[in-house]
Amino acid sequence: MTYAIIETGGKQVRVEPGRFYDVESLPVDQDEKLTIEKVLLVQHDGNVHIGQPLVAGAIIEGTIVRHFRDRKVIVYKMRPKKKTRKKRGHRQEVTRLMIDSITLNGEVLASREQSESPTSEPQAATAE
Questions:
Q1: What's the gap between Cα 126 and its chain centre?
Q2: How many helices (H) and strands (E) does the chain have?
Q3: What average pLDDT does range 10-23 have in this prediction?
Q4: CA distance 21 to 11
């Protein structure tokens, strides 16, 4: 199992190839490729590469799936016995990112094609 920890939007996210993640809004158009070089850790078959602060030569490639707004967060402020109430909502802009591959020093450690299990097709019976 290969995974990496990246930094995006001021947060650290553990990512694996073939999965999508909702991160802070990125200024990239939909269906475009994205390269992330802020990689803090890479783990591949028991070998752990820890950056100080970043792993040299580590690249995460992904595709922007879509942009959307997250669920609404309600902020309700009330002062008791004063008849003052404030109810406000907030929806954060979010980007859905599909991780395509994890690369370390030019070698692809894991990719989306490797992580997906191949579907077995039924073989037709041969008539003799």
A1: 46
A2: 1, 11
A3: 95
A4: 12
Strands (E), 2-92: 3-8, 11-15, 20-24, 33-36, 39-44, 47-50, 58-69, 73-79, 84-90
Contacts of 58 (CB under 8 A, 6+ apart): 4, 37, 39, 42, 49, 51, 102, 103, 104, 105
Give percent above pLDDT 70 in the chain.
89
Mean pLDDT (the chain) is: 90
Please tell me the distance from the alpha carbon of residue 24 to that of residue 47, in angstroms, as a whole number: 29
Q: How far is CA 56 from the centre of its chain?
A: 20
Q: What is the tens place of the pLDDT at every residue in 63-104?
A: 999 999 999 999 999 999 999 999 999 999 999 999 999 999
Q: What is the largest CA-CA distance in the chain?
A: 91
Q: What is each CA distance from 99 to 68, 94, 108, in whole angstroms?
A: 18, 16, 13
What phi and psi values does residue 46 have, to the nearest 5 degrees?
90, -15
Taking a C-beta distance cutoff of 8 angstroms, is the pair 107, 47 a contact?
no
